């Protein structure tokens, strides 16, 4: 089988560098590089990408060995039908390891056609490192590396206001661009760089907050022979992903002109305020996951797909989403229902094995952020308890006992939280257990005993779970609480 490179596939690499991308991992290659390739195909965007390895160890050598080429397989469910596609991604012009080739990294700042900075350096990547200095080659943090690149560009083009860049981070933190800009300005201050550079950053570089959503399992190690059989070349950087794609970017009409995604089939939303979309994702997608995990594990399921396809647990999660969570959100009902439909298609994806135990980490803090706001909003609006979310809450408490029917449960949390539950579960009175848990400000940020009806409902649910198990316990809970 022939090696994957441009010569063997008769491809050129003449695209100008319009994008510098910090990160060479699976997500960026399946999401950002794929999306810019669609722009190149649909509107002759003519954008080449230079990829920068953001940490000392990475995949740049492998990427360069294949001339930036790799195959993207997208497999999943859409509107109830299986979707399977493959595409050779060809728009990466070069990969640079700044730890070895720092001067080559700085040369990127001088690219005449450069317009965009893209990044995904994990949630921890957008962080200030007080040890970073401007003479380091390179500094430790991503924001410091970017500050040096921008400073080099500012100096090379003599502060040309037309040479500012559009900066679009994809790290999974809220207000990611605002945070990045704040750290860059902090480096400018402590490094005592010129005020003109600071003004150039503020006025002529454009930082856009984003929300990204796509499940990318990455390299299919356990099924690699099946994927290689579909190719006529050897690809060591195959990446697999679901077909779902959502990119929400805060921006204006100018950004829409710079990035004409409206002329592609991709679901890219350039909006004034991305927060409603973030709330939608956190409450529906992440909320369903978090509400599902303890409840479904206690029932006896092991995967997300198994949960959704089971008559009882599938109906339970659907009602939690469509009848309770969606009722608390502000976007149009039809749009919320359509998004939820897509979420459940993703949950049913036969190509992704999503173990419940793998998403059980830190379930208490996740519940506080992802599920509790929906539960409390539902009570506020409807003046009654949401049955499914409340029962899920009780299952969470039961799950943190750490044992169920003689089996150890995959509780994964801080020692502090696990110790609190260990002490709580020495109590024998269910009402007291409920009271102590609900009043824990560290867990919930408030005393939930003050929420009318919630302590009583939680107590009933916990008693029924103990006596009857998950399915019959829920049936009894609904009868008794009503």
Architecture overview:
The chain is of the alpha/beta class and 482 residues long. It has two domains: 2-271, Rossmann fold, CATH 3.40.50.720; 275-481, N-(1-d-carboxylethyl)-l-norvaline Dehydrogenase, domain 2. The chain contains 22 helices and 16 strands. The protein has helices at residues 6-9, 26-30, 32-43, 60-65, 102-107, 142-156, 176-190, 195-204, 224-228, 253-258, 275-299, 304-309, 311-325, 333-347, 363-370, 372-382, 387-399, 415-424, 430-438, 441-444, 454-468, 470-481; strands spanning 2-3, 17-22, 48-52, 70-78, 81-89, 92-96, 116-119, 166-169, 206-207, 210-213, 233-234, 239-241, 246-250, 268-271, 403-404, 407-408. The chain has a six-stranded parallel β-sheet with strand order 6-3-2-7-8-9. Strands 5-4-12 form a three-stranded mixed β-sheet. Strands 10-13-14 form a three-stranded mixed β-sheet. α17 (387-399) packs across α21 and α19 crosses α21. The radius of gyration is 25 Å and the shape is globular. The model has no long low-confidence stretch (mean pLDDT 95).
* Radius of gyration from the alpha-carbon trace, in angstroms: 25 Å
Number of strands: 16
Q: What is the general shape?
A: globular
Give the quaternary arrangement of the chains. Answer: single chain
- In the CATH scheme, the class of the largest domain would be Alpha Beta
Secondary structure tally, helices:
22
- Please state the average pLDDT score: 95
Structural class: alpha/beta
* Biggest sheet, spatial arrangement of strands: 6-3-2-7-8-9
């Amino acid at each position: 089988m022939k090696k994957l490179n441009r010569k063997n596939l008769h491809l050129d690499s003449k695209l100008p560098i319009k994008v510098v991308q910090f990160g060479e991992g699976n997500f960026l290659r399946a999401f950002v590089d794929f999306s810019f390739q669609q722009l190149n195909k649909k509107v002759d965007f003519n954008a080449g990408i230079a990829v920068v390895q953001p940490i000392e160890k990475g995949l740049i050598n492998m990427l360069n060995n294949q001339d930036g080429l790799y195959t993207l397989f997208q497999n999943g469910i859409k509107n109830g039908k299986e979707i399977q596609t493959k595409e050779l991604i060809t728009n990466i012009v070069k990969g640079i390891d700044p730890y070895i080739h720092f001067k080559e990294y700085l040369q990127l700042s001088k690219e005449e056609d450069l317009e965009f900075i893209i990044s995904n350096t994990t949630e921890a990547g957008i962080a200030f490192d007080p040890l970073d200095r401007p003479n380091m080659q390179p500094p430790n943090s991503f924001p410091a590396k970017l500050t040096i690149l921008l400073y080099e560009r500012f100096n090379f083009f003599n502060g040309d206001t037309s040479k500012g860049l559009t900066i679009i981070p994809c790290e999974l933190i809220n207000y990611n661009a605002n945070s990045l800009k704040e750290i860059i300005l902090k480096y400018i201050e402590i490094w005592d760089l010129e005020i003109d550079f600071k003004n150039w950053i503020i006025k002529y570089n454009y930082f856009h907050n984003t929300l990204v959503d796509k499940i990318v399992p990455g390299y299919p190690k356990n099924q690699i022979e099946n994927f290689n059989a579909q190719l006529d070349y050897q690809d060591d950087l195959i990446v697999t992903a679901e077909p779902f794609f959502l990119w929400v970017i805060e921006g204006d009409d100018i950004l829409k002109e710079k990035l004409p995604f409206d002329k592609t089939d991709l679901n890219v939303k350039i909006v004034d305020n991305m927060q409603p979309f973030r709330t939608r994702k956190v409450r529906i997608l992440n909320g369903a996951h978090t509400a599902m995990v303890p409840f479904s594990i206690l029932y006896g399921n092991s995967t997300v797909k198994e949960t959704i396809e089971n008559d009882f647990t599938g109906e339970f999660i659907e009602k939690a989403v469509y009848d309770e969570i969606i009722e608390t959100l502000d976007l149009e009902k039809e749009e919320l229902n359509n998004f939820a439909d897509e979420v459940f298609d993703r949950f049913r994806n036969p190509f992704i094995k999503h173990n419940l135990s793998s998403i059980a980490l830190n379930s208490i803090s996740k519940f506080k952020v992802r599920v509790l706001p929906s539960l409390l909003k539902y009570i506020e609006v409807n003046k009654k308890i949401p049955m499914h979310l409340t029962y899920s809450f009780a299952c969470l408490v039961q799950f943190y006992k750490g044992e169920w029917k003689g089996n150890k449960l995959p509780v994964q949390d801080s020692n502090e939280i696990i110790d609190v539950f260990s002490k709580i579960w020495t109590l024998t009175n269910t009402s007291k257990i409920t009271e102590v848990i609900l009043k824990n400000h560290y867990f919930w940020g408030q005393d939930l005993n003050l929420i009318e009806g919630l302590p009583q409902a939680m107590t009933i649910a916990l008693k029924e779970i103990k006596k009857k198990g998950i399915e019959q316990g829920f049936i009894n809970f609904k009868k008794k609480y009503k």
